[in-house]
Design goal:
Elements lengths: L10 E9 L9 H19 L4 E4 L1 H4 L2 H10 L5 E5 L4 H6 L14 H4 L6 H19 L5 E3 L5 H11 L3 E4 L3 E4 L2 E4 L6 E2 L1 E2 L2 E5 L11 E3 L34 H13 L6 E5 L6 H21 L4 E2 L2 H11 L6 E5 L9 E6 L3 E8 L2 E9 L18 E4 L1 E5 L12 E6 L5 E3 L3 E9 L2 E7 L5 E6 L3 E6 L8 E5 L11 E5 L2 E6 L2 E8 L1 E4 L8 E5 L3 E5 L4
Parallel strand pairs: 1-2, 1-12, 1-13, 2-3, 3-4, 4-5, 5-11, 7-18
Antiparallel strand pairs: 6-7, 8-11, 9-10, 14-15, 15-16, 16-17, 17-19, 20-21, 20-26, 22-23, 23-24, 24-25, 25-32, 26-31, 27-28, 28-29, 29-32, 30-31
């Protein structure tokens, strides 16, 4: 692949395999988990892929794994840290273990969110010391389902890690909720909240956090909509309907590799060894030739998490704008989606067979502190959120889904939904995404995403065309709305006690009649601008 210019948008895949020593849920787990890693190494060596292997402390200190890595792993591969906390790790740091087994998945035991800041630093120190004793240097990459801001800052400041990763967006999966964040790709997190992208250099932790697992851009968000839990539709090679399904993988890669994405596009492949080789073999052996072919064509870069982190830090001083564009539907149901991310907000457009809406807008504010910043969490779950403006998942019921829709105002006072179709997505510049889309009557709208705002314009030929945007939420979900006051061009909101505002230029925001709509955004003539920077 040619050397990147400023406007190039590389497509990058990290193969990340994270390694546990044991798993109490699996009979003969120590042997089966070791066997999985042996075969993962053989497979990456066969394809000459630079892969990343991340170790929990219990596997790190196992001489068998040390011998395997030192004798079988290609020098192009990377060894790093997987940040789930185990009994040997805790006890080495002089802390009392609270789990029933030597590894458990409970959030307040397996993750540093469940420990005091002082304990978190001890856990980092003892891991880093042991890693350097074994491999002669500190790890450059540290991944986890989630690493809290205090721990991540400490790792960067003292041990100079260059790359990190956390779980995809999900609700309730395995007890872990991460919702409203930078969708896919990578971001620089806030010093107060490692899930929240920072808006300023002063308040960002200077390490990129890459989102793991390769979520289905259309369907992962909708999985379990209106409930408190989601399934998984991801690139993980153990899932028969997605990562183990050749047609789904090709559909996913089409979006990642060939569609507009602004600064870059990204996917994490690989698998945790708890799924065992029998669970992942078929999927990995199907995926790897696809990756090899795309690499041969110069369409993707396959590299270690460390090298991608270094590239990101060299390329971006602040979180870039990125996009995920998915215009083909694996299920042939007529669905399409576009995701846009920046350091200020994320947004998602959804085209359905008979509808169109903004299904999601979440704003980011680096000053929103995590619940676990200075105090340990309790219980089996952790929760991380950003600031909702539109949230189809939480504000819907399984039977009645919501979204911010475009409505046409008729001369007699009635309204009808504008059902947009056939989006054309372009990239006017490295941080601007333009979506042009029309209804069956030729009424064309243009939606332009900038770093800090969204421009929505009517571009049709009907000079007297009247329209507005509306949100209607099911009655049983209205108590979830964060809106507090409507002040013309300003909508004030509060989420979990944190105040924020949404402003509208070239139009105004109204509270709808609760029997009709919960929110109206009315344009001035044919254009409105939604400001998504909480400033």
């Amino acid at each position: 692949m040619p050397e990147d210019s400023f406007l190039d948008s590389p497509r990058i895949i990290n193969i990340v395999n994270f390694i546990r020593q044991t798993d109490y849920r699996i009979e003969n787990s120590d042997n089966l988990l070791f066997e999985a890693v042996e075969n993962q190494i053989k497979l990456v060596n066969e394809y000459n892929f630079p892969a990343t292997f991340l170790f929990q402390y219990d596997a790190l200190i196992n001489p068998a794994y040390q011998q395997l890595m030192k004798t079988q792993l290609s020098p192009d591969c990377e060894i790093g840290a997987w940040w789930e906390i185990t009994q040997p790790h805790v006890e080495a740091a002089g802390i009392k273990w609270r789990g029933e087994h030597s590894w458990v998945s409970h959030a307040n035991i397996a993750f540093t969110t469940g420990y005091t800041p002082e304990e978190r630093e001890k856990l980092v120190d003892v891991y880093m010391s042991k890693f350097k004793e074994i491999y002669g240097e500190y790890p450059r990459s540290v991944g986890s389902w989630f690493i809290d801001a205090h721990t991540l800052s400490y790792m960067v400041g003292k041990y100079k890690i260059v790359s990190s990763s956390n779980c995809k967006d999900q609700v309730g999966t395995d007890g872990y909720t991460l919702w409203g964040g930078y969708w896919n790709q990578a971001y620089y997190p806030s010093r107060y909240n490692a899930y929240m992208p920072a808006q300023t250099k002063e308040n960002q932790i200077p390490v990129p956090v890459f989102r793991m697992l390769g979520s289905d851009p259309i369907y992962q968000y909708e999985t379990g909509v209106g409930t408190n839990g989601q399934g998984v539709i991801s690139l993980e090679p153990v899932y028969r309907e997605s990562g183990k399904n050749r047609e789904w993988v090709k559909y996913f890669l089409e979006s990642i590799v060939n569609q507009p994405s602004l600064a870059f596009n990204y996917a994490q492949a690989g698998q945790e060894n708890s799924f065992t080789w029998s669970g992942m073999e078929e999927g990995l052996k199907m995926q790897f030739p696809l990756f090899a072919s795309l690499r041969e064509e110069g369409k993707i870069r396959i590299e270690t998490l460390e090298n991608t982190g270094k590239w990101f830090k060299d390329r971006f001083t602040m979180t870039p704008a990125t996009a995920i564009t998915t215009l083909t539907d694996i299920r042939n149901e007529g669905n399409k989606t576009v995701w846009f991310n920046s350091r200020f907000y994320r947004a998602s457009l959804l085209w359905e067979k008979d509808g169109f809406c903004f299904r999601d807008i979440h704003m980011f504010d680096e000053n929103l502190k995590s619940d676990y910043l200075t105090a340990p969490g309790t219980g089996n779950q952790f929760f991380y959120y950003t600031l909702p403006v539109i949230d189809r998942f939480y504000w819907s019921t399984p039977e009645e889904k919501t979204g911010l829709q475009i409505m046409q105002l008729e001369d007699d006072g009635t309204v009808k939904e504008v059902v947009l179709k056939d989006p054309i997505v372009t990239e006017p510049s490295i941080d601007v995404l333009c979506v042009s889309t029309s209804d069956s009557e030729g009424n064309r709208f243009e939606i332009v995403f900038y770093e800090n705002k969204i421009d929505i314009s009517y571009k049709g030929d009907k000079k007297d065309f009247k329209w507005m945007m509306v949100l209607k939420v099911p009655e049983s979900r209205k108590d979830r709305l964060p809106f507090e006051s409507f002040e013309g061009t300003v909508l004030r909101a509060k989420f979990k006690g944190f105040p924020y505002k949404i402003t509208c230029e070239g139009g105004f925001i109204q509270k709808g009649d609760k029997t009709e709509y919960d929110l109206k955004i009315v344009p001035n003539k044919h254009k409105l601008v939604i400001n998504c920077a909480n400033r």
